[in-house]
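Aim 2 progress update. The chain analyzed this quarter is reproduced below.
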Amino acid sequence: MSITIQLDLPEGLIQQARQMGLLDGGRVAELLAEEVRRRKAGQDFKKVLDEVRSAPGEPPTMDEVSAEVKAARAERRRA
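Predicted structure tokens:
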């Protein structure tokens, strides 16, 4: 599937992006995929943080939070 995107960008940015090879369709797809991954990771982190914060009892230690983050990252890598 393909879509056509039209952007209105400042000329200076266009020139720099073109020189860096960022306006190539494949590179734009890579940039979008990386941004989607980054935002998903942020959402996953917020979800884990909300779960930790809502757990009854004493607040978790930094080691416990770190362990939760590592587990979530490992799970994401497996997926």
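The mean pLDDT is 91. The chain has three helices and no strands. These observations will guide the mutagenesis experiments scheduled for the next reporting period.
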